[in-house]
């Protein structure tokens, strides 16, 4: 039986960073497989995680929610058979429903055991995301049995406020505000299962055919596609880091709609860099992975417009 952990969180919350931390501080010496999937087509997080010597299976049919009938359900069995890992870490798309991923994993109960359903919450954007993307955002909180808070500024009043809001949404989950690498490994490895997840387990037991579960998951994915959009671009390797930064800032400020997340790995003339964007923050830093793709995720964004802005045609 392979231990399985689901690391959920809305766009830009810090899921990939948490997986790195868990690999370094929680599962040292163990064989880890990460099932990672972007909402867009770039496979950027997969490239970055691979550079950290973590085995990555990147699914091809969109986010995990829509891949369950094909790639995802089969991938679990294939991974257990071929890699025989000690631990599987599942990183769903930031716009996926945690409850849907839990159901699919429960259907593979003979191969894997869900040990923890972890959700990362960006404290700076809790109110905004709850108001605008409640169905997706709140599902990730409601079904978590361990909630980690990212981007806290240390203010005690802010911390108390966000903890109260999270507790109102989920009264059973363990809440952690410490730096992730200082939290005891035992907290990540196991803990009390919230009743919402137990209810999903009972639902899966009562529905013996996987096809019934899968049909129930197709509708939420269609809803996600109606709300969110992604644009993936290939970058010119002749760009310098500064030229890349200028182009990214141009897209961020000129594109229609709202860009909620940007990420990419680009081999520039002067360095290979990883960039992350969430509203108000653009971060570019050197990295060891190689790539030439960037991805924007948001609402109301237009693919051709973003490509034209990036290429300097608008």
UniProtKB/TrEMBL annotation:
Residues in the signal sequence: none
Domain of life: Bacteria
Alphabetically ordered keywords of this record: Chaperone, Hydrolase, Nucleotide-binding
Domain CobW/HypB/UreG nucleotide-binding: from-to ranges: 5-152
Listed GO CC annotations: cytoplasm
InterPro entries assigned to the protein according to its UniProt record, in alphabetical order: CobW-likC_sf, CobW-like_C, CobW/HypB/UreG_nucleotide-bd, P-loop_NTPase, Zinc-reg_GTPase_activator
GO MF, one example: nucleotide binding
Residue intervals of the CobW C-terminal domain: 228-311
UniProt-listed Pfam families: cobW, CobW_C
Keyword Hydrolase part of the UniProt annotation: yes
Reaction catalyzed: GTP + H2O = GDP + phosphate + H(+)
Ranges in coiled-coil conformation: none
Family affiliation: Belongs to the SIMIBI class G3E GTPase family. ZNG1 subfamily.
UniProt name for this protein: Cobalamin biosynthesis protein CobW
Species the sequence originates in: Lacrimispora algidixylanolytica
């Amino acid at each position: 039986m392979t231990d399985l952990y689901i690391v959920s969180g809305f766009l830009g919350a810090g899921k990939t960073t948490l997986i790195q931390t868990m690999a370094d501080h929680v599962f040292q010496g163990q064989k880890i497989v990460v099932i990672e999937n972007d909402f867009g087509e770039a496979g950027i997080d997969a490239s970055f995680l691979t550079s950290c010597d973590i085995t990555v299976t990147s699914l091809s049919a969109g986010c995990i929610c829509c891949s369950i009938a094909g790639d995802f359900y089969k991938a679990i069995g294939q991974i257990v058979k071929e890699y025989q890992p000690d631990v599987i870490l599942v990183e769903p798309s930031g716009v996926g429903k945690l409850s849907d991923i839990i159901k699919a994993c429960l259907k593979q109960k003979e191969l894997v055991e869900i040990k923890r359903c972890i959700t990362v919450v960006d404290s700076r954007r809790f109110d905004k995301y709850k108001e605008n993307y409640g169905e997706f955002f709140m599902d990730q909180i409601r079904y978590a049995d361990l909630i980690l808070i990212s981007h806290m500024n240390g203010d005690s009043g802010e911390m108390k406020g966000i903890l109260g809001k999270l507790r109102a949404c989920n009264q059973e989950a363990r809440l952690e505000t410490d730096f992730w690498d200082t939290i005891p490994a035992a907290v990540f490895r196991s803990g009390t299962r919230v009743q919402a997840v137990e209810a999903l387990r009972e639902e899966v037991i009562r529905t013996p055919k996987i096809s019934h579960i899968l049909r129930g998951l197709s509708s939420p994915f269609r809803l996600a596609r109606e709300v969110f959009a992604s644009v993936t671009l290939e970058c010119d390797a002749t760009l310098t880091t500064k030229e890349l930064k200028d182009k990214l800032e141009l897209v961020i400020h000129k594109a229609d709609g709202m860009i909620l997340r940007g990420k990419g790995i680009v081999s520039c003339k002067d360095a290979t860099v990883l960039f992350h964007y969430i509203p108000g923050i653009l971060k570019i830093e050197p990295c060891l992975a190689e790539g030439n793709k960037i991805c924007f995720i948001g609402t109301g964004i237009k693919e051709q417009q973003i490509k034209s802005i990036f290429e300097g045609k608008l």
